[in-house]
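Take a record.
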Amino acid sequence: MSVIKVDKTGVVRFVYCDELRSLLDEGQATILRVSSVEPNAYGQWIADLGPVNGPALGPFQFRREALNAEVAWLERRL
């Protein structure tokens, strides 16, 4: 499930996923990269939320775990 937030001015915010792509056609849209998921030197995965003043999450054994943690952190802060 995705979290979609609409503020008082009508601005819609959400963590991008392909299932919500059609929302981009409803008006002016801007997509911003606010984090990254990359492997470390040990082959573990780190979700870096530094671009939004967040933490580095992990390490995780599997990339999917890091992606899930990244999305959960972002959605809690929408």
